[in-house]
């Protein structure tokens, strides 16, 4: 490492200092969010190190259990879940936790309870774990009025009520992308310092994009607007060049690329999965929150994703998110279909 070059970098802003600066903008802040986030960051560092050593540490493969989604849990799904549950409870700032890997919500005991509710996908992109392709962790945060026990209604809220959302991608580098409602910032883990450093300040998703991202293996079951949109990506009617298809199969990685390069990520509803595949609370909401904060859009096929009022903690929702103009085109195709003019 060229320490001289490092030393000259003026923007050596760690995520902790960044959040403390944000906190100073809120005179009423008590520091609870900063403490909660520092425990989430600790969890991400722990999982990042486990993922990078997975092959060596026998963390590849199945854990032998089936989760509430009916999916075979991977060893890293289980480990990441335990790490984040511990990190969130030991922050002393949470009251209700919803994890993809736990059938029931976790209600934190009074002595360790705080005002925040955290919904999270401890390990996203599980199908890519064993082949070392980028995976991640996704989280969304709600703030409750008080630190009483609370009820499920405290998490069954529209995504627009979240106070923060983020993801951590475990890829060629470990990148944590965060929004506290005033824009989106990206931090890269410097393994030699063990610090997340601000590397992507104020991320703005390009208005248009040249990339579409969807599992085309589901195409035969798609509805007309989705088929029409993908058709246009491949055979543009305006003579422009076709879009490129990129699909990693890890939502975190596909959304991260979309946020930086523009384009669109889709997991539409189809005849086989009438609500799509991705879970509203801990996949669709956090990613939609980030995309809107970066100037993009997030649409379900019937409305704004962040307006959904969830009824169950593991429900699924179709999702189209990304560059403003790409999602606008999908919205107009659904509107046309709605008015039978498609
Ligand atoms: O294999 P498919 O049907 O394209 O689904 C891929 C999608 O499923 C997921 O892997 C689901 O998330 P989990 O791995 O957390 O269960 C997403 O990351 C990804 O976008
Ligand atoms: Mg997931
Ligand atoms: Mg998962």
From TrEMBL:
PROSITE patterns: FBPASE (PS00124)
Cofactors (names): Mg(2+)
Keyword Transmembrane helix: no
EC numbers on record: 3.1.3.11
Superkingdom to which the source organism belongs: Eukaryota
Keyword Lipid metabolism in annotation: no
Entry-linked HAMAP family: FBPase_class1
Name of the protein in its database record: Fructose-1,6-bisphosphatase, cytosolic
Phylogenetic classification of the source organism: Eukaryota, Viridiplantae, Streptophyta, Embryophyta, Tracheophyta
